[in-house]
# Entry
Amino acid sequence: MKQTDAHNTRHYHHGDLYPTLLHAATDIISEGGSESLSMRKLADRVGVSRTAPYHHFKDKNALLCAIAEQGFKNVERLLEEVRVREKTESLSVIFTEYFHHYIKLAYQNREQYDLMFGREIWRHGSPTESLQTISRQHFKSWLNWIERLSEQDVIRTDDSPLRTAQVCWATLHGLCRLLNDGIYTEQSQLDEIANAAVEMMLKKPH
# Structure
């Protein structure tokens, strides 16, 4: 007799199956890339029926978008954490450390990072509305921080805050790509490059 989803999910309630599926899917792509992920493999990994994941994700594209969304939540949390320190620590030190922490986070979650900023979703797939929203919101948070750092004379302001934010953002992600794609395999080398990049962005004291 065919088992029902309710029976297969056992201890999973409808509300907590979603994060369980999302976590398992993230683990699968971390182990073998997004091509190794399928709705069937996910169901088997979690121990639910083959149809259970479809109650939460329309298809694989929607699942990959959800993984990317979680990545944006993680980097947004990182930005919030460093901004809490602004009242008690040097802004230039905070900015420098943020660069290093971001690069480390991107490397530790390489497959998720690729979904956040790569072509699989944004060019070849179909980004969901919620993914588009959270990605725009994160860049807005980044822009707001760059504006504040500019106002505090921490970073160079030779152009508009938007253009400055875009250039700093592009530099940060370029460093992530160099490490994630294996161009630079030694962390010490990338650390030195990141320090040099930040030094160019920081406003020199008079």
